[in-house]
Design brief:
mainly alpha, single chain, 79% helix, 2 domains, 201 residues
Length: 201
């Protein structure tokens, strides 16, 4: 009985196998075609994104050229000249250097020395309130001491020149020269900071 059952079992013909293979091939072709379409779409999307990124980079470069560096971040010869003119006006307006000479004769050396850091501090407060306070970028605030130091030295040189030219006894004694320079420096640094911030945003 077992032999008969084996003989009567269904046999798979070569035609059936060929049909299955053909259907598998057709399915593979469909899958391959779909994958190729997906790859083409992805390449198209990537090329579009690349073009958009290039366009954005061009716009960014144009904006950087148009805006330029922040005016308070760099010091040019024009800024030094403006500071020098402001210091000159500060020391000569209403003959303030003459009043500085009178005050210099009445103060001692310790107070004269103290006037220099006071002038520096007043210049820093003046610059911050009038120009740097509106800046939100912290990196620009770190440039305040550098800019102030340049203005301080410029006003100091201008004060020296003004006193040398307009005050005959300025170089008589080193002590009196130092005290006179200290008393005039305050008005000079205020004038330099004022002139430096004219026309800036």
């Amino acid at each position: 009985m077992a032999k008969k059952r084996r003989k009567t079992s269904k046999k798979v013909s070569l035609t059936d196998i060929h049909k299955e293979l053909q259907s598998i091939k057709r399915l593979q072709k469909k899958i391959t075609g779909f994958e190729e379409q997906q790859v083409k779409r992805e390449k198209k999307i990537i090329s579009q994104e690349t073009e958009e990124l290039a366009a954005l980079e061009d716009v960014e470069k144009q904006l950087k050229k148009a805006v330029g560096e922040h005016p308070l971040r760099k010091v040019t010869y024009k800024d030094i000249a403006k500071g020098a003119i402001g210091a000159f006006v500060g020391t000569t307006a209403h003959y303030s250097f003459i009043y500085g000479v009178k005050v210099a004769h009445q103060i001692d050396m310790a107070r004269a020395i103290l006037l220099f850091p006071i002038s520096f501090a007043i210049g820093a407060i003046f610059l911050y309130i009038t120009g740097f306070r509106r800046i939100k970028n912290v990196k620009l605030l770190w440039f305040l001491p550098i800019r102030l130091l340049i203005l301080f030295l410029t006003s100091l040189i201008v004060s020296f020149l003004v006193l040398y030219l307009l005050q005959p006894d300025f170089l008589a004694t080193p002590m009196e020269m130092f005290k006179t320079l200290a008393t005039v420096q305050l008005s000079a640094i205020i004038g330099a900071c004022t002139a430096d911030l004219i026309g800036r945003e």
